[in-house]
Specification:
Residues 208-253 form the SH3b2-type SH3 domain. This is Glycoside hydrolase. Keywords: Hydrolase, Protease, Thiol protease. The chain is an alpha+beta fold and 468 residues long. It is built from twelve helices and 23 strands. The chain has helices spanning 55-65, 67-70, 73-78, 90-96, 110-120, 209-215, 293-303, 319-328, 338-341, 354-364, 408-414, 455-458, and strands spanning 15-20, 35-40, 130-134, 138-141, 166-170, 175-181, 187-191, 196-200, 204-206, 220-223, 229-230, 239-240, 247-248, 258-266, 272-280, 284-285, 346-349, 370-374, 377-384, 390-403, 421-422, 428-441, 461-464. A hairpin with a 2-residue loop joins strand 18 (370-374) and strand 19.
Length: 468
């Protein structure tokens, strides 16, 4: 039986279009055209009743979210190596490797590499120890530069969007511990709640204990989409909140339809200035937000079909950040790195055969609280389709493809491949780009002619974030 793969083509309120890939039956024929079948959100396996997220889980979420402020600089420096992200020794990797490619698909030359390393001023580390706050959405980088660091673009799966200098996006209102400034004072090496690395100082304001005391109210609203406008009273400018952000608030008027939350701006001398802004209560989660169908549906709808963003580039999401931001709404802490996420909750090693994997998933997996993993990619299990297909919600860039030389012409007519190259076995390796967050069957990629492999075949682990 051929199994489908699916993705959302156009944003619709409750429709999830699914594309079915039907492979050709002979080597010389073209693959059949893609057919579209629609699923409704109501057909997914949402929880039948609210699932209680434990108080311990929610406490851990808040503790980890505020870690850069709650710990002393000395203690953070002492365990710097234990935080995810690259240390300053990564500069030497950059110096030694000639195969870093820029946005123009040409290698970074030796002169510019040496200039960047000198600007990092690693010899004076740590030269600026101060607590800070992200005041505008920004990126955390492995090196103090906005320029990309691609591997050889001609390789399959390399080049855009895989900028290896990009670690993660950081949303506004993220607490930081700044440890070091670049020589030109444009970059700060920081510890954030999820990664350490370099952040543009234009996106950071410095905070003192008085500001921290006012900001850490113990009550934090979480945006339900990326479209919540934050426009402080009297300001000519605004930003859009992001799912996964924390918005502190101090008082809750149960009679009002809106809530006063905090954000910050930077003064001329880089000090944080507390700002207050009102948001509609219906646009944010507050307190112990119920984990149930009523709340999950709009969250999934808001994330579905969004462009893929490696490391959060362009304020988009990759596989791990999409799952992380979704879970943050319910105050469930997840690391940013996809591999580290699998260390959370109850871990399972999946059996070898597809049937055994399906049996274990059906027996143990809890929809929307189970992460499935293949190498380099996490997927959220979301139950079964009406036809009994196990479904996954994931932000995916592409399917790996392998095509014999004699079939290449026919294949490219139907499926353009990015970064195609010929491997040692003579086959052409490439990618069938999906490039967005999708709901698919676990059999996505299954192909009788072995041009692509199904996600299920490649899965090797499962983690249950909370038992049912």
């Amino acid at each position: 039986m051929n199994h489908p793969w699916s993705f959302k083509l156009l944003p619709k309120p409750i429709i999830i279009p699914c594309i079915f890939l039907l492979v050709s039956c002979t080597d010389n024929s073209k693959p059949e055209e893609v057919k579209v079948i629609e699923y409704r959100l109501e057909q997914l396996s949402f929880p039948k009743k609210p699932i209680k997220i434990s108080t311990k889980t929610q406490t851990t979420f808040l503790k980890n979210s505020l870690l850069p402020w709650a710990s002393s600089p000395d203690s953070l420096l002492a365990k710097l190596a234990s935080f995810p992200g690259k240390e300053l020794t990564y500069l030497e990797k950059y110096r030694a490797d000639d195969n870093w490619y820029g946005e123009h698909k040409k290698p970074h030359n030796r002169q510019e590499r040496e200039a960047l390393i000198a600007n990092a001023d690693a010899g004076s580390f740590p030269n600026f120890v101060h607590k800070g706050l992200v005041v505008q959405h920004t990126d955390l980088r492995r090196l103090p530069t906005e320029r990309p660091g691609f591997d050889q673009p001609k390789k399959a799966g390399e080049g855009y969007p895989f900028d290896y200098f990009q670690e993660t996006a950081l949303w506004a209102n993220t607490p930081l511990q700044i440890l070091h400034l670049s020589r030109d004072k444009q970059w700060g090496y920081v510890i954030s709640p999820i990664y350490k690395g370099w952040v543009s100082m234009q996106a950071i304001a410095l905070v003192d204990e008085e500001f921290i005391s006012a900001w850490t109210t113990g009550h934090y609203a979480r945006p339900l989409s990326d479209n919540v406008v934050l426009n402080p009273e009297g300001s000519l400018f605004a930003i859009k909140a992001k799912m996964g952000m924390l918005l502190p608030y101090s008082e809750l008027d149960k009679q009002a339809d809106s809530l006063e939350v905090f954000m910050a701006a930077s003064t001329e001398n880089k000090q944080a200035r507390l700002l207050k802004v009102r948001v509609a209560k219906k646009e944010v989660a507050m307190g112990d937000y119920p984990f149930e169908e009523k709340t999950l549906k709009p969250l999934v709808s808001a994330l579905l079909g969004r462009p893929y963003g490696w490391g959060g580039a362009l304020e988009n999401r990759d596989c791990s950040s999409m799952i992380r931001d979704l879970m943050s709404t319910y105050q469930i802490w997840l690391p940013r790195d996809s591999g580290d996420q699998m260390e959370m909750g109850h871990h399972y090693d999946l059996p070898d055969t597809a049937d055994q994997k399906l049996e274990l998933i059906e027996k143990e997996a809890v929809p929307f609280l189970t992460i499935l993993r293949k190498k380099g990619h996490n997927m959220l299990y979301v139950g079964k389709s009406p036809e009994g297909e196990p479904l996954i919600f994931h932000a995916i860039w592409a399917l790996k493809s392998s095509v014999p030389h004699e079939e290449l012409g026919n294949y490219l007519d139907q499926y353009p491949l990015e970064g195609m190259h010929q491997a040692d076995d003579g086959e052409f390796k490439g990618r069938i780009v999906i490039g967005q967050s999708v709901i698919t069957s676990v059999h996505l990629g299954q192909d009788e002619q072995n041009r692509t492999r199904s996600q299920l075949d490649q899965m090797y682990a499962m983690t249950l974030l909370q038992p049912n």
